[in-house]
């Protein structure tokens, strides 16, 4: 009798197993398709996160001699740095065909980058054409931010124009932000006698700045693309990576290319002051 009962139960167990197997397989299939769709849609962000996680993990083993290949198709390459990069060996940086560097000087209305003066002097001594930038805080007064920058940065003939970095995502009023940007640009241009460069990332620029500051040269940050989506006549510098390695810097650094040859970069520099005419 027990043997007969076991024999009768087997088809029931098989039917129950089959009933569970079908929805399970369907759920797995849907999960795989969903994962494939999600990765296909967000693969750049996911790959970027994985690379950054890996870079963080291996940061303790870096030597400062790691090297990212130069971007093909461009002849003038540069970096931008702040205190985040730590102590920089600028002579080694110059050996990696880095022709220009923008150095963070200030942020908001009070913050001075603690490594600015050292970087400013040593980049110049290494033969790298230097420029300085201010990180704009949208909810603070534009005039006070301009005053902080001009008191911090001793731009001279031969230096690259001043830069306003506008990308901070948190602000209360876009019109107030634009007014503050316009104030900074106007005051800094008046102080140094040269038109500043405006820096922003692609999405922020398209959403908040496009059409409002077109008279200023644009330095565009746009990653994970073969070319910026903006037309070439709209930007002069492209920050194509913020996770590059350059010998002389222990850790990642922003990598940029200048749209044009070296002669055009030299033409961008602050011109010499006109000589005073001799009295008659």
TrEMBL record:
One of its GO terms (biological process) is cell wall macromolecule catabolic process. One of its GO terms (molecular function) is lysozyme activity. SUPFAM superfamilies: (Trans)glycosidases. The keyword Hydrolase applies. Keywords: Glycosidase, Hydrolase. The keyword Hydrolase applies. Gene3D superfamilies: Glycosidases. Transmembrane segments: none annotated. It comes from the Bacteria. InterPro entries: GH, Glyco_hydro_25, Glyco_hydro_fam25_subgr. Signal peptide: none annotated. CDD domains: GH25_YegX-like (cd06524). Pfam families: Glyco_hydro_25. Belongs to the glycosyl hydrolase 25 family. PANTHER family: LYSOZYME. This is Glycoside hydrolase family 25 protein. It comes from Hymenobacter wooponensis.
């Amino acid at each position: 009798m027990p043997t007969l009962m076991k024999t009768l139960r087997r088809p029931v167990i098989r039917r129950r197993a089959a009933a569970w197997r079908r929805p399970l397989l369907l759920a797995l299939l849907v999960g795989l398709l969903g994962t494939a769709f999600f990765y296909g849609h967000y693969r750049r962000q996911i790959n970027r996160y994985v690379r950054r996680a890996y870079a963080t993990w291996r940061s303790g083993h870096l030597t400062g001699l790691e090297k990212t290949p130069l971007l093909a198709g461009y002849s003038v390459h540069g970096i931008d740095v702040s205190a985040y990069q730590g102590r920089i060996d600028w002579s080694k940086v110059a050996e990696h065909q880095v022709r220009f560097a923008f150095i963070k000087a200030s942020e908001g209305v009070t913050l001075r980058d603690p490594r600015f003066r050292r970087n400013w002097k040593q980049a110049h001594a290494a033969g790298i054409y230097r420029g300085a930038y201010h990180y704009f805080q949208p909810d603070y007064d534009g005039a006070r931010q301009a005053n902080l920058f001009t008191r911090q940065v001793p731009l001279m003939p031969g230096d690259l124009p001043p830069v306003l970095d506008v990308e901070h995502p948190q602000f209360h009023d876009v019109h107030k932000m634009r007014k503050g940007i316009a104030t900074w640009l106007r005051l800094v241009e008046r102080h140094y006698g040269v038109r500043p460069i405006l820096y922003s990332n692609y999405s922020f620029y398209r959403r908040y700045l496009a059409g409002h500051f077109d008279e200023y040269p644009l330095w565009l940050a746009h990653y994970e693309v073969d070319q910026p989506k903006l037309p070439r006549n709209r930007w002069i510098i492209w920050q194509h990576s913020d996770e590059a390695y350059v010998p002389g810097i222990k850790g990642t650094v922003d990598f940029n290319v200048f749209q044009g040859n070296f002669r055009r970069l030299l033409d961008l520099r602050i011109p010499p002051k006109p000589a005073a005419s001799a009295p008659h």
